[in-house]
Amino acid sequence: MVYKDTAEKSGIQHICTAEEEIFADPIKDENVNNMRKSSYGEATILQQFSFSWMNGILAKGASKPLNEDDIPDVDKKESAQYISRIFSNIMTNVKGSLPLTVWSICKATFLLVWKKAALNAAFAVLSVVASFVGAYLIKDFVSYLGGDSGFERGYYLVLVFVGAKAIETLAYRQWFFGSLQVYLRLRTSLISQVYQKVLYLSSQSRQKHTSGEIINYVGVDIERIVNVAWYMNMVFMMPLQISLATYILWKNLGLGSLAGIATTTIIMLCNIPFTRIQKRLHAGIMKAKDDRMEMTSEVIRSMKILKLQAWDIQYLKRLKNLRKQEHMWLWEFLRLKALLAFMFWGAPIVISIMTFASCILMGIPLTAGRVLSTLATVNILKEPIFSLPELLTAFAQGKISADRIVSYLQEEEIRSDAIESVARNENEFSVEIDQGAFSWKADAKIPTLQDIHVKIQKGMKVAVCGAVGSGKSSLLSCVLGEMPKVQGTVKVFGSKAYVPQSSWTVSGTIRENILFGSPFESDTYERTIEACALAKDIGVFSDGDMTDIGERGMTMSGGQKQRIQIARAVYKDADIYLLDDPFSAVDPQTGRHLYKKCLMGVLRDKTVLYVTHQVEFLADADLIMINNNDSCIWIYFKSFYSPSQVMQNGRIAQAGKFHELQQDMAFGVIFGAHFHAVEQIFEVGSNYWIASACHPRTGSKSKLGFIQFMASIDQSVLDLETASTLSESTFSVMQFLGTMLIISCVSWPILIIFIPLLLVCIRYQRYYSLTATELARLSGIQKAPILHHFGETFYGAAIIRAFSQEDRFYRENLTLLDNHSRPWFHLMAAVEWLSFRMNLLCNFVFGFSLVLLVRLPQSFVNPSIGGLVVIYAWNLNTQLSEATRNISRAEANMISVERILQYTKLPSEAPIFTEGSKPPIAWPECGMISISNLEVRYAEHLPSVLKNITCVLPAEKTVGIVGRTGSGKSTLVQDPVMFDGTIRGNLDPMNEYPDSRIWEVVDKCQLGNVVRSTEKKLDEIVIENGDNWSMGQRQLFCLGRILLRKSKILVLDEATASVDSATDRIIQEIIRQEFKGCTVLAIAHRMNTVIDSDFILVLGEGRIVEYDTPAKLLQREDSTFSKLTKEYSQQSQHFKSSKAKPQDG
């Protein structure tokens, strides 16, 4: 379906294409939701017992492939919203003011499901008691076959046998399905708790947990915990089963049963030491899995830089080593599991031998009835014996996982008292900070920010500037309440909107990212698009503002993502705007447009705090902040035209309007460096302008969340479940067929119904499979978005909180959980629907066999053999049920295998090594780059972002790459990336250089003092994405990485966009000195950084617009490069005139 919504004012065309994909919008149309009702919730008691409420969806699945809207809703008591609300209330009451513990989690989960669990327990007890009827009465039935009584006695026994079997079937199926409902409720409740924690994790807590670990919590640990609930019924069922078995054995064999009972006890006690070993091995597996997932997430996220730095092979080796470590733990675990399986599968034989041997030694006669009753009892006793290792394994795994989850849920959250939110109309100020001191580290001796005393009046434009790492972004964080407060008070009057320095977008369309949960209002939307300079970009996209921006905005340029972020903030119509370096990712013309139309236009009546290194955007500010270590001031402004502030080293050094700060030394460093850069442009460009006046993106089809899903959950299924379910399926099928063969051999008339029965079973299986396959597919499809949503929330939690969108994102999480629960719940119900009908057919075979044995002449069947037939027939329904369940589990597990295989068959790049084309060790020797007919697009269905690029970049020359925002510059190269680890590991990932060389590079990058001030120096921690360092510091570290390596070819993509002009000037000089004789490609919006390049490459709309020396391009007044340079100089001229003419205030 395609629809268009054309906006009359701007002429922007909005196109939406509806297509099925793995990451669909979680918020469905309300009308669709209202059309879907819960079939289970509306079912009668009879329909619930027979699972006939599934008939409708099974019939629909048999007639056509199912889609998401064909699946009914889950019952209200299984819905995520209902469960999460109830569980949150229970957790609050259970926990109280005490710390969260494993016990409190267990207690809360019990209170959540105790009613359903109690009903399940009743069904379980009824099923167990009914299952022993056969073993109890088999002796009487053998006696009857021996001619002890008449037909009436035989039919009475048949009636009791069949009745007990029917009760067992009904009770077992209801217990099993009820356990699945408990499983679903617990899984939903725990996932919702983990997601709530993601929304409110403090900055310090985020440093302890990576996104990969959280994915393991959701995808693996929670599954392990709810598995414990699955096995909980066995805790009281086992004593009941053992007690009943003991009673029957004692009744039949007397003292002879003691040997069998003792053997059973010894075998079960053997589990204790093995359980301890399993617990240790499982802890090792989970730790290894966390390490592998952390590395996997980082590699996927940083793939571009790994390729460009030729580190992909080394990182692949690291991943293989991590997988090898995980494999070692898995191998030990699976070997122990195989040993336990061997022991416990052989246990019934050992028990039988010991029992019969003791009877022989004691002289107890072993009649046919006694032997068959004993065999039947031991056969039933197999279940607790086999289940005990699984139970203890589940408890061991669950305990480890529960400890991990509780440890995570205990982490510190953002403090609600960090800021005091006050209604906008209650004060003339927008922000008040009194005696503020803030620190990112709780144990830091010196706070990150200190002596902050600020009162900002409504409507003020406050600019914050200063050197790299001086605390500019931290100041915004303390206003947001993100930065831990050491002392003081922070008051915020009104709503907030926040634009972070690192762009953050959600998977979806441009429009969805701009609206960000707000209702669509055409006029406001059009004004926002225009103010944020997005109209031209949207007009270029074939789908308009319905263009999918991809995961993490992969299909957008850095400038486009930045403007979408700004548009998101503008559209919110907040009272206070916090913009962190909003102009760094855009070209001068776009920056000027944003400044005039957005900052000083649609936001003219709003309070705006904006961080910037671009001094040309300071002249009109009402307040500029400067910080240093030697001074602090109190700022209290009653006039609207109050001064401005500059930051340095975590303190507000100065504050004033632009003209008041011009003569100050600290502000002069920033201003002077910028003005020096402007003069450089004028110096190079003026001669050419005077002279001329005298003359007439590769995208991936797979998404990060989906790959993480495969690497975590699918790989875990492959490691621990697939092989065992396949073997169990094979064994259970063979066991069922063997039982039918024995029954047929003894009582051949059974073949009269066996063949039709087999045909009916096959028909039922095929009918069921049509729907079950689709339900399994949809269940798998709807699970990956849950993990993806976790990842997006983890990275964007600060923005979500700033926009007060926590409730909306939490509701989206609940919707995603329901989207997964619906197909999963109905898949499990479909399995029960099939199993119930298979059980009924087997019960019919069992009853028919008993009637045959009763009606056949006594001479036709030996009583002992007849009793054996009864024992086998008694277990027929259980065997068929196990076979059905195991086959269903195997099919579900094979979906994980199929997903991994499909992913491995996706089109790949060229092989790492090509025979006959291996470059020499010294390659590249000269550094020349030749590009011929290059065309790049982010995905097959998207338009090309680079078109027919053909050029030669000469060796040992510097080529400046310029162009408007979105012209395709960064598609050629990469983003600055930092890895989880240490400073040393980020600068020297391959461990190739000595510390002396690393320190030399750190000093050259102007980071020496910062690194030396840390506790661990070069071993100081760098968390995921480098979030514990400022953006400017991250860029400098990335520069240090390339300075250390000194490659023949150097690519700089806005390498100093987030640093101040003074630092930029120093870095540019270092690059010129260090990379003499190298080929340098420099992308920049600051024209001073490329004006002295040997060549200039100008891109526009993905094509080469111009390519020549700066001198020749500046000679042509109509050249794009000349226009860009003029635009930059015009901004600087305005800046210079503002400096010369102080404003009144």
Automatic annotation (TrEMBL):
InterPro entries: AAA+_ATPase, ABC1_TM_dom, ABC1_TM_sf, ABC_transporter-like_ATP-bd, ABC_transporter-like_CS, ABC_transporter_C-like, ABCC_6TM_D1, ABCC_6TM_D2. Residues 118-397, 723-892 form the ABC transmembrane type-1 domain. One of its GO terms (cellular component) is membrane. It is found in: Membrane. Residues 431-674, 854-1126 form the ABC transporter domain. Residues 873-900 form a coiled coil. Keywords: ATP-binding, Coiled coil, Membrane, Nucleotide-binding, Transmembrane, Transmembrane helix, Transport. GO terms for molecular function: ABC-type transporter activity; ATP binding; ATP hydrolysis activity. CDD domains: ABC_6TM_ABCC_D1, ABC_6TM_ABCC_D2, ABCC_MRP_domain1, ABCC_MRP_domain2. It is a multi-pass membrane protein. It holds the Pfam family ABC_tran. Gene3D superfamilies: ABC transporter type 1, transmembrane domain (1.20.1560.10), P-loop containing nucleotide triphosphate hydrolases (3.40.50.300). The chain crosses the membrane at residues 117-138, 154-172, 230-250, 256-274, 338-364, 736-760, 838-856. SMART domains: AAA (SM00382). Its main location: membrane. It comes from the Eukaryota. PANTHER family: ABC TRANSPORTER C FAMILY MEMBER 15-RELATED (PTHR24223:SF165), ATP-BINDING CASSETTE SUB-FAMILY C (PTHR24223). Belongs to the ABC transporter superfamily. ABCC family. Conjugate transporter (TC 3.A.1.208) subfamily. This is ABC transporter domain-containing protein. It comes from Leersia perrieri.
